[in-house]
Amino acid sequence: MAVNATMPYDRPRRDAVLDWLQMLTGAVLVLFMWCHMILVSSVILSPKIMNGIAWFFETTYMVQVGGPLVFLGFIVHFILAARKIPFTATGQETAWAHAKMLRHRDTWLWIVQVVTAMIILIMGAIHMWVVLNDLPITAEKSAMRVASGGWLWFYFILLPLIELHVSVGAYRIGVKWGFITRENRPRFKKYETYLFCGFMAVGVITLIVFATMATALSTVQNAALPALPLL
Ligand code: HEM
Q1: With 60 as the cut, is the pLDDT of residue 214 above it?
Q2: How many domains would you assign to the chain?
Q3: Does residue 7 lie within any of the structural domains?
Q4: Which end of the chain is flanked by fewer CB atoms within 10 Å, N or C?
Q5: 159 Cα nearest atom in ligand 1
Q6: Which CATH number do you get for residue 28?
């Protein structure tokens, strides 16, 4: 394949700064997602614990201020990453051809990152909009939401996508910035898989707990309704 070796490349400093910002916003979002999963999954231990954590974050205004900031970070991270995403059909065909030609796991991981990013951008924005417009957060309200409409399916799609994006993203940050070297790469690949499987397991259990809670809450509500008089 012909490569244009004379291609002008006069803004290395600006690109380095943007790359660094992309890594930084990505790392912050990875940390946020891990904290978010731990906090939401506290419902597995007890709905009271989840309510207590939500109450703490709301009375300290961390949800009201932090939520929109996460949203902003989410958009900035996407715009920075979009510099390298091929949006045209020709660009996509070239990226696909390169991945097939190189046959390297990390090139495929980059394609995974791009595809998951597009879907997460839409689904994550919908999720944040719905949750942040329905404060306060309570385990009971979350359970009823998860069990209503198509939300359970929505989360069963978003969960693997976000876990894949986060674990691959953490691994790629390590490779790009030199923490993961040729020698320790197999070990970190294993960590990346463990991370994905661990968070997936916790996420799926959380969704099952929400769905079971919603069924129990509906049963209690129905039992509390006065019986209709028989005509
Ligand atoms: C703005 C900050 C956010 C808040 C306050 C928040 C809050 C919540 C809450 C309360 C739930 C429980 C379910 C519900 O109530 O509908 C939940 C679940 C979930 N959220 Fe978020 N979220 C935020 C950001 C995000 C982002 C950025 C993503 C990924 C793009 C995300 C992905 C998920 C997933 C996958 C679940 C299902 C949980 C599981 O299976 O363990 N959230 N979130």
Answers
A1: yes
A2: 1
A3: no
A4: C
A5: 35
A6: 1.20.1300.10
Q: Give nearest CA residue, ligand 1 atom 40.
A: 203
Please state the φ and ψ torsions of residue 46, each to the nearest 5 degrees. -175, 140
Domain that holds residue 86: 23-219
Query: DSSP per residue over 127-166, as a string?
Result: HHHHHHTSPSP-HHHHHHHHTSTTHHHHHHHHHHHHHHHH
Minimum CA distance residue for ligand 1 atom 35: 159
pLDDT at 185: 87
Nearest ligand 1 atom to the CA of 204 is 40
pLDDT of residue 5: 52
214: in domain: yes
pTM of the model: 0.83
Cα 131 to ligand 1 centre (Å): 8
With bands split at pLDDT 50, 70 and 90, how would you rate the model's confidence at 168? confident
Mutate to test the pocket of ligand 1, among 131, 142, 159 (most ligand atoms within 8 A of CB): 131
Determine, yes or no, domain membership for 79: yes
Compute the distance between CA of residue 168 and CA of residue 164 in angstroms, rounded to an integer: 6
